[in-house]
Structures are given as C-alpha cells and as structure tokens.
Amino acid sequence: MDPETGGKIAVAEAARNVVVSGAKPLAITDCLNFGNPEKPEIFWQLEKAADGMSEACTILDAPVIGGNVSLYNETNGTAIYPTPTIGLVGLVEDLSHVTTQDAKRAGDFVYLIGESLTEFGGSELQKMVEGRIFGKAPAIDLKVEAQRQQQILEAIKGGFVASAHDVAEGGVAVALAEKAFGKGLGIEASLSGSATTALFSESQSRFVLTVSPDKAQAFEQVVADAKRIGTVTDTGTLTIKSEDGTIWIQDSVEALRTAWKGAIPCLLKSEA
Fold it and tell me: Residue 7 forms beta bridges with which residues?
C-alpha cells in the first residue's frame, strides 16, 4: 500500500464527513500510528504519509494545528498497518445547514456523485475475501475532491439536500444501507458496471445524497456530476439492481441494520 496516498485519503475522508454534515472544513489534528521508525521502511512510511497529508491539507484548505505520534507499535517484530488518524473540525455557519445521513422522505431522489472504479486495495471486501490487505490504494485526485466538496456544501447551504453521506468502507452498497437505517425507509437503486465494482468498490471522492423532487433541478445545476440512481421508498427494503434490472441486493432494512449493529458481538462470539 502507498502510504502517501493513504495520507491523502485520511485527510480527504475526514473532510468529507465534515462537509456532508453541512460544515466547512477548517483545520485538522492528527495521531500518526506506525511501527518502529528506526527501521528504514517504517520511517519511509511515516515520511510519505506526512507528505500526502500535507498536500491534502493544502488543497482542501484545512491546515494541521496539532497532533501527536504513536510509534513502535509492533507485535513480534511485525508493525501495525500505517495508520494516520485524522480529526477535523468544521464550521457550521447556520444551524439550518446541519445535515444528517438518514434518508428523510419516501419519494426523494437518490444521487451518486463520483465514479466507481475497480479499486479494492485495502478495502473491506479484500480483507473479507482474501484475509489480508495488499495492492494499490484507490487513486485520489485532490482537485476533484475539493471541487466536489465545495459543490456539495454549496448545495446544502442552498437548501437543496435532504440527506448526505460519504461513500467509504464497504462502498456504495453499505452507504445506501446506512442511509436507510435512521427512519426505516427503503431505497430502490440501479447501478452501472459489474456487480462487485458497483456495490463494493472503495473509489474516492464519492457521495450519496437524497434530494426532494421539487429541488432536483436546482441541485443538479450546483453539483455538476451528480447522477440520479434511485428513489427513497416506504417499503422498508433495500433493493439494488443492475441497469438491466437484475437484482443484486434485496433485503429488509431491519435485517441489514441488525447485521450492521451486531457485527462486533458476532465476531467476538465466533472467536470465543
């Protein structure tokens, strides 16, 4: 894995979480968690991660104002994954801009911003299927990232966005499921490309938003590459299909929420 790209992604993901809540990113604090820096390869990881973070902070206009390090994190000579942990503070200029991730109303349109590419290095799917992390991290264009964040924040401030969520661990399938959890509504969506990539790719700079139909035109004028992929329903079911109508995922939101909330207890029981 490329630690420089990892540093960029860590900052960008933190900024996305702030933007989708309706706030402008202001500054970050960090904790750099690495192995033994006396080893050349570990020092290189630390240096490159810092380089990536620096570039992301510059382009996203969120300087580092504090932080610390946690080094020598090893077990039997094997270091932990390079882990730059980012905390980012943002400014909500008006309380009416505060936005949550939960879909709000049946009938609202669901939009996907960003392209899903065949990128699985370091992903949840890779870890689950292969049992290990390897390969290239997803590519990130920080200028594209900054532009999308700016457009989405502008749309939120304009009152065009009902709910907003970044696409992170697990890809679009997980993001859509999480959007339905809050109020128990359903979502019906159609995605393009292969099932694995469309559902579980962890490509960067992607967002899932819901928008009231009467505000859709104004929203689309602000967020240039937003693609309508579906609709919020009152069925309590998440249905994700291919463009030709093949059902890839169909399950009750309650069942998905139970699996999501019970993941840690389930893992602990399986290892007991």
Answer: none
Contacts of 222 (CB under 8 A, 6+ apart): 151, 154, 155, 158, 160
Rg (CA), the chain: 19
78 CB neighbour count, 10 Å cutoff: 7
Q: How far apart are CA 167 and CA 250, in angstroms?
A: 19
Query: pLDDT tens across 25-59, in order?
Result: 999 999 999 999 999 999 999 999 999 999 999 99
Pairing of strands 109-113, 207-211: antiparallel
What length does the chain have?
272
CB 148, CB 19: distance < 8 Å: no
Report the phi/psi class of residue 207: left, alpha or beta, with left for phi > 0 and alpha for psi in -120 to 50. beta
Tell me how many degrees the CA angle 209-215-219 measures, rounded to the nearest 5: 55
Convert the pLDDT of each residue in 101-157 to its tens digit. Answer: 999 999 999 999 999 999 999 999 999 999 998 889 899 999 999 999 999 999 999
Residue 145 CB-half CA count within 13 A: 27
Token representation of residue 13: 């993901």
Is residue 124 a contact partner of residue 200, using CB atoms and an 8 Å limit? Answer: yes
Give dist(CA 64, CA 53) in Å, integer: 9
CA distance 34 to 46: 7
pLDDT band at 262 (very low <50, low <70, confident <90, very high): confident
Give the H or E element holding residue 249: strand 247-252
Whether 12 and 205 have beta carbons less than 8 Å apart is answered as yes
Q: pTM of the predicted model, to two decimals?
A: 0.94
Please report the pLDDT score of residue 271 as a whole number: 56
In one-letter notation, the amino acid at residue 200 is: F
Query: What SS3 state is found at 26?
Result: strand
